[in-house]
């Protein structure tokens, strides 16, 4: 009987609610100029429609999209959902001057690619954005942090802000993003996860 209960519990594990592992940015005072710049970066609601200078660049993007979609299957099994998510993440990463592989690694660590997850600290969505950011640089509606593009935009803009604050030191920027600045566990986890999403264009190799 005990063995049967154990097997049942194991079978039900994927159905149980899972909390997010990370996502506890600390609210810090922002200079008015910084707050205005961040708010402006968030407010531009252009849709994620990548534009390319050449057909070669567009084809490279499509090859990346196909490769990443295959890798993302273990987290998101619906094709159109994967494609929309990856297009948006690529757009928001590039828009903030970040590598998509790094942002994908961060999302993997923060939320496991779960759109509606909430951490014990109250952080929300794919990139585990704390609700106070909606008040500081958004319209005050924290529920919008569950919207895919809004969440990815906030997350990328916040990480870029921390990277600028830390003078380009990604280790410290990631620690600040996680609320654990100076400790190595979280940056190490993101850097390790990033390796899964690194991609070499074999058509160019």
Radius of gyration: 18 Å
Distance between the termini: 57 Å
- The helix-and-strand class reads mainly alpha
Q: List low-confidence stretches.
A: 1-20
**Separate helix tally:** 9
| CATH architecture grouping | Orthogonal Bundle
Largest sheet: none
Structural shape:
globular
Helical content stands at 55-70%
How does the SSE layout of this entry go?
Blueprint: H1 2-12, H2 32-43, H3 55-72, H4 79-95, H5 100-111, H6 132-137, H7 148-165, H8 170-178, H9 185-197
Helix pairs in contact: 3-4, 4-7, 5-9, 7-8, 8-9
Question: Can you tell me about this structure?
Answer:
With 205 residues, the protein is mainly alpha-helical. It has a single domain (29-197), classed as Lysozyme (Orthogonal Bundle). The protein is built from nine helices and no strands. Helix 8 crosses helix 9 (185-197). The longest helix is centred in the first third of the chain and has 18 residues, at 55-72. The chain starts with a helix and ends in an 8-residue tail after the last helix.
């Amino acid at each position: 009987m005990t063995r049967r209960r154990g097997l049942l519990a194991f079978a039900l594990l994927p159905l149980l609610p899972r909390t997010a592992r990370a996502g506890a940015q600390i609210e810090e005072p922002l200079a008015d100029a910084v707050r205005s710049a961040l708010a402006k970066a968030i407010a531009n609601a252009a849709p994620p429609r990548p534009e390319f200078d050449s057909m070669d660049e567009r084809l490279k993007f499509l090859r990346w999209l196909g490769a990443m979609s295959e890798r993302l299957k273990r987290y998101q099994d619906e094709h159109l959902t994967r494609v929309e998510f990856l297009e948006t993440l690529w757009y928001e990463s590039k828009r903030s001057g970040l590598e998509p592989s790094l942002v994908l690694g961060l999302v993997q660590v923060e939320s496991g690619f779960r759109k509606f997850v909430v951490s014990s600290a109250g952080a929300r969505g794919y990139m585990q954005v704390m609700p106070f950011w909606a008040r500081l640089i958004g319209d005050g509606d924290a529920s919008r942090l569950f919207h895919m593009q809004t969440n990815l935009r906030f997350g990328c803009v916040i990480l870029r802000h921390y990277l600028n604050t830390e003078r380009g030191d990604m280790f410290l920027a990631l620690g600040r993003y996680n609320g654990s600045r100076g400790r190595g566990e979280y940056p190490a986890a993101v850097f390790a996860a990033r390796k899964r999403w690194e991609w070499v264009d074999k058509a160019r190799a």
